[in-house]
Amino acid sequence: MKMLVVCSDFPYPADHGGRVDTWGRIKVLSELGWKIHLLVCGKQTPTKEEMKAVYDYVEEITLCDRRSKLADLLHVIPMQVQSRSELKNVDLAGDYDYVLLEGDYVYPILDNPKIRQDTAILRVHNDEAVYFKALARSTKNIVHKMYYHMESSKFSVLQKRMLEKVDKYLFISSKEFESFQKQNPEAKSLFLPPPVMNGSFEASDFQSKHVVFIGSLFMPNNREAIQWYLEHIHPLMLKEPEYKFIIAGNSRKQSLSWLDAYDLTNVIVHDTPKSLTDIYRNGYLFVNPMQNGAGVKLKTIEAIQNGLPVISTSIGYEGTGLIDNEHIMIADRPEQFYGKIKQLFDNPQTAKALLDSSQAFLRMHYNHKEVLKGYIQSLNTSYQVKQVL
User: Does the keyword Transferase apply (predicted)?
Assistant: First the structure.
């Protein structure tokens, strides 16, 4: 069985949420015995080392140029999609049993003559119309705000077009899946949690007093979350002995001067770190104070997997299935948020119990391989997926 996986970004290294999800799925599909052809239409060209790492799991890699131009803003198709229109002209082998679209951005692949629409499966990373509207709320830049609102409106139209061409959907968010299923009961849709490997859960000794936030530093919703924490929570935390606030993420070489307006006493920033291992290992807890967003915030799942209990706003944990005060702590008002951190700081056993409970939940409910395997079998009952590892 052969599958074409179409991405808007090279999936390796898995250094942000979208890549983590896509890369984990590629590995799972390889373990299930699929021959994978990978087609990527993005801005960044992978290194030889990155290509080599991906070739361990895929049979063929095709890179397609993403071509952005100002005129794309005037097109009825979202700019993120229109800039990848070259996908419809890429020469492909064809004869794919399934074509997995990693998000709405790669919609043009459906117009490629080598692709049969009945083989298409869409991985829904976000409700893009909702996501871009949330980005518009997060940014203070008027030009960016206008652009995000335009993209949001265009994605609303594109989603209706997508429904005419695709009837197979895999949602990363349980909340978005449930909403879609109610409106489109005829579609073959399913909640497919992000990949979590059972053997990869870390523990914490809760010795440091590091509060950790990890997320893409070029994204306005992550910047907004950090700014909210620095304005409302960080000044209260400075009276805690040995407390530090650790910020880490990929800036894509954009300026971090937006941090300068805040008191950065005991704040440590890791701009585009090569590894997050020590940052997680030296952390006490993870905060996700997001004010706007859509889909599942994979940073929450990754933090739990890497051994940190999580305190989040309601936005930061929606769609995960995690339960407040059982697997995660939720607070939307600053005084509540600070109180939750203080509670875990003062009670390491409570912090450990919260982490253990959340990791047990992920082990039980986030079995990506079994859910994906069952879904594919349900589409083609004559074929039995054989696991090779």
Answer: yes
Tokens of 53: 């790492």
> CA neighbours within 13 Å on the CB side: how many for 278?
4
| Enclosing H/E stretch for 223 | helix 220-232
Bridge-partner residues for 267, per DSSP? 245
**Residue 124 near residue 169 (C-beta atoms within 8 A):** yes
CB-CB contact of 5 with 102 (8 Å): yes
Mean pLDDT of 48-58: 96
Reference 372, options 199, 170, 180; nearest CA is 170
Q: How far apart are CA 279 and CA 367, in angstroms?
A: 26
What does 2-49 look like in DSSP terms, one character per residue? EEEEEESS---S--SHHHHHHHHHHHHHHHTT-EEEEEEEESSPPPHH
| pTM for this model (two decimals) | 0.80
Q: Which residue, chain included where needed, has tokens 């304005």?
A: 231
- Does the pLDDT of residue 386 top 70, yes or no? no
299 φ, ψ (degrees, to nearest 5): -60, -35
Distance CA 21, CA 357 (A): 22
Q: How far is CA 7 from CA 29, 64, 90, 270, 383, in A?
A: 15, 10, 13, 27, 26
Cα 60 from chain centroid (whole Å)? 24
Nearest to 130 by CA among 173, 169, 163, 165: 173
Instruction: Report CA Rg, the chain.
Output: 21
> How many CA atoms within 13 Å lie on the side-chain side of 23?
19
Closest CA to 304 of 361, 389, 375: 361
Q: Which domains does the chain show, CATH number per domain?
A: 2-195+366-379 (3.40.50.2000), 199-365 (3.40.50.2000)
Which residue type, as a one-letter code, is found at position 68?
S
Q: What is the number of residues in the chain?
A: 389
Residue that is written with structure tokens 């590091």 in the block: 210
For 199-242, how does the pLDDT look when each residue is reduced to its tens digit (9 = 90+)?
578 988 999 999 999 998 988 889 999 999 999 999 999 999 99
- Please answer whether residues 104 and 120 qualify as being in contact, where contact means their C-beta atoms are separated by less than 8 angstroms: no
Single-letter residue type at 298: L
Instruction: Please name the residue that has the structure tokens 């770190």.
Output: 273
C-alpha span between 218 and 223 (Å, rounded): 7
